[in-house]
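Section 3.1: Structural characterization of target chains.
Under the original work plan, the team committed to producing a structural model for every single-chain target entering the pipeline before any wet-lab resources were allocated. The record below documents one such target. The sequence was received from the expression subgroup and is listed exactly as submitted; it comprises 274 residues.
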Amino acid sequence: MTSQVTFIGAGNMASAIFGGMIEGGYPAAAITATGRDPQSLDALASRYGIQTTSDNDVAVEHADVVVLAVKPQVMREVCHELRDSVQRQRPLIVSVAAGLSAETLDNWLGGNMAVIRCMPNTPSLVGQGAAGLYANARVSEEQKRLATSLLETVGLVEWVADEHLLEAVTAVSGSGPAYFFLIMEALEDAGKKLGLPADSARRLALQTAYGAASMARESEFEPAELRRRVTSPNGTTERAINSFEDDGLRQLFEHATQACATRARELADELSRD
């Protein structure tokens, strides 16, 4: 029997997930999304064939899974509004909001709920996401399998046993796309300074990033070995790699990801305060 899935919030991340679900064969009639803008909801219903409503309680009434996809700053209010409905229905709760712990969400929803936290990233919008998931003790193995199958429609799914590891997931994959965009930007700028036309520098930088990522995903070798294989002794690539190493590139990434994880903890503390 197909699970009824309700999305509270119908923004970019929610639409990426249910769009991926439908593309993967999930029946649109089993998906409901809520929002405040009737025109946006009508557009989603027309595009995807899903059910839409502005009434969260109605949307949750028959839901097996409720995906909380609203901004963290309004999550407390939304959870309090949903409390009576979810306590009656007892659905699996999946939150894609950053920073809010499973315990905090459970408390706001009235307690004793099966809660999964998901840290997705923006490439989910093009079906190439990477998400870290954590389940509290009330989530069954069947519910974990269901969450995996739903979220794999938009990319990679990795489960973590310790909720605090979601801070590391945030630092590596949650915020990671921005790091790679910065690298693409820097490589493009470097190419222009070496004399390449701007459009050529951009195309070469983007295609090189895409090609390297594709090669790394499809290869039997780890990235370190792939790097060694394209770095000829005393060649041009070795000169560039040595320059990166001498300038402390690895330490820069270590410091940046630590800063990101620290900020994730700070935000979690700020958001969960009463």
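The mean pLDDT is 95.
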